[in-house]
Design goal:
Strand content: 15-25%
Oligomer: single chain
Function: Methylation of the membrane-bound methyl-accepting chemotaxis proteins (MCP) to form gamma-glutamyl methyl ester residues in MCP.
Order of helices and strands: EHHHHEHEHEHEHEEHEEHEEE
Distance between the termini: 30 Å
Protein name: Chemotaxis protein methyltransferase
Catalytic activity: L-glutamyl-[protein] + S-adenosyl-L-methionine = [protein]-L-glutamate 5-O-methyl ester + S-adenosyl-L-homocysteine
CATH topology of the largest domain: Rossmann fold
Radius of gyration: 20 Å
Helix content: 40-55%
GO molecular function: protein-glutamate O-methyltransferase activity
InterPro entries: Bact_Chemotaxis_MeTrfase (IPR050903), Chemotaxis_MeTrfase_CheR (IPR026024), CheR_C (IPR022642), CheR_MeTrfase (IPR000780), CheR_N (IPR022641), CheR_N_sf (IPR036804), SAM-dependent_MTases_sf (IPR029063)
CATH superfamily of the largest domain: Vaccinia Virus protein VP39
Length: about 290
């Protein structure tokens, strides 16, 4: 999800319907239970402003009607609610040291170990936002596969809760200025530049799409995949969870990783005091310990 609560305009939407204390408390509980995000009392006006847009989109007259929709059909609106109260912050090759470690140390070793033709390699981008992270991973993976010259069944799973973020990731089209973190060589190789009415846009190369599967997933709910994954990226997501939620999530991640496999967190996230199943091996890079 790579989501942060929006601080840019906390007074937005105050001229519309008023979010009463009872409805706000219901929304706080609902968002925490279903999304893992703890909303403080100070977020009252912010939530009112952000969700006023959803009321207009749904044709609802007040927040009571919106809360009733969540009570009766929670899954229908969950993704839109998550999108409304959060802002997806991401970039190509964000925290570049993670991708350097993957390209220079981990992928060469893994591909050498997968000697049998058709061996599988799986990386999970958990909280993929609008696709910049998984497509960055796909570039690194595609280049590593070319260097190794071996037939490996390699795929990246990219998941998020936000329908808007997933739609952008599926589309794979970005303003050229969003490619600032991509080297000139990779821009030429992995992006198709738009012309005419599409000038100023760039589309990811079809080969990157072939390596990437994008799907909706709530990290707090059941996971359909069984693993194992060779690596998991879950960056700038858990910082907004409370301690018990983080502990449960780290334990679940450990269940999908073999011993020695890495879990990548965001620059301001840490497992300190939260899990004894991982050990720190680099800048916000953790490795699953042996049992």
């Amino acid at each position: 999800m790579s989501a942060v609560v929006d601080h840019d305009n906390p007074a937005a939407g105050l001229a519309g319907p008023v979010l009463g204390d009872g409805d706000f408390q219901f929304l706080r509980t609902f968002v925490y239970r279903h999304c893992g995000i703890a909303l403080s009392e100070q977020k009252h006006q912010l939530v009112q402003g952000r969700l006023a847009r959803r009321l207009r989109a749904l044709g609802l007259k007040d927040f009571g009607a919106y809360c009733e929709l969540l009570r009766t059909e929670p899954e229908r609106e969950l993704g839109e609610l998550a999108s409304a109260i959060s802002t997806n912050v991401t970039a190509f090759f964000r925290e570049v040291h993670h991708f350097e470690a993957l390209a220079n140390e981990m992928l060469p070793r893994w591909l050498e170990q997968k000697r049998r033709e058709g061996d599988r390699l799986r990386i999970w981008s958990a909280g993929c936002s609008s696709g910049e992270e998984p497509y960055s991973l796909a570039m690194v993976l595609a280049e590593a596969l070319e260097r190794c010259g071996r037939n490996v069944d390699a795929k990246i799973l990219a998941t998020d809760l936000s329908p808007a973020a997933l739609a952008a990731a599926q589309k794979g089209v970005y303003p050229v200025e969003r490619l600032d973190g991509v080297s000139a060589e990779r821009r030429r190789r992995w992006f198709l530049r738009g012309e005419g009415e599409y000038a100023g846009l760039a589309c990811v190369h079809p080969k990157l799409r072939e390596l990437t599967t994008i799907a909706p997933l709530n990290l707090l709910h059941a996971w359909p995949m069984q693993g194992p994954f060779d690596a998991i990226f879950c960056r700038n997501v858990v910082i907004y969870f409370d301690q018990p939620t983080k502990q449960k999530l780290f334990h679940r991640f450990a269940g999908l990783l073999p011993t020695g496999a890495p879990l990548f967190l965001g620059h301001s996230e840490s497992m300190h005091g939260l899990s004894d199943e991982f050990e720190l091996i680099g800048r916000t890079i953790y490795r699953k310990r042996s049992a």
